[in-house]
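FW: tagging you since you asked about this chain on Friday. Here's the raw sequence from the shared folder, copied in full. Didn't touch anything.
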Amino acid sequence: MFSGIIAAVGRICELTPRNDGTPTVRLSIDAGRLALDDVALGDSIACNGVCLTVVDRQDQRFFVDVSPETLSCTVGLDAPGPVNLEKALRLADRLGGHLVAGHVDGVGEVLRFDPVGDNRLLEIRAPQELTRYIARKGSITVDGVSLTTNSVRSACFAINLIPHTLAATTLGGLQPGSRVNLEIDLIARYVERMLNPDPIEAH
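HL: got it, structure written out here
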């Protein structure tokens, strides 16, 4: 589990196909300011909101394997470039954002990224099947960043980004047409499940 509070912006330095006959790709990621001294093989690190497993470490770089399925349903992991990084939560950690699973539910498209004073108004169009889970003043994860929605209109939602978020994450580089990873709030998912259970099959 994660909190959506980005610890550092790293960079995908290299993508190499695995030599085991599978279409899996190995990413070499420079962790930037993310401390890796307590990271062991098998630990999870969220990269742009995608929970990935550390398979190797070398100095300030770590390596993860990404499957074709993950590459097909996410963005930002298929080419060298900056990525938001967060290590998995410990039970004693402070939850500054909201509970984030690191499982991307869909890819959204940036419609607006307008300056409002020192802030930015970010408007995103979400996939239609996710709109039922997005509520005004609710939580949503964008490229791994825990954010609060200001307004929701049909399949579009708007967020106010403060200067700290713009400086501490990759979101400052967005522009209209950019695609972003979205993860809906876990609570919304479970509420829907409780309200709309599957019919009980007769035996």
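FW: DSSP finds three helices and twelve strands in the chain.
HL: agreed, and The first strand starts at residue 8 and ends at 17.
FW: great, closing this out.
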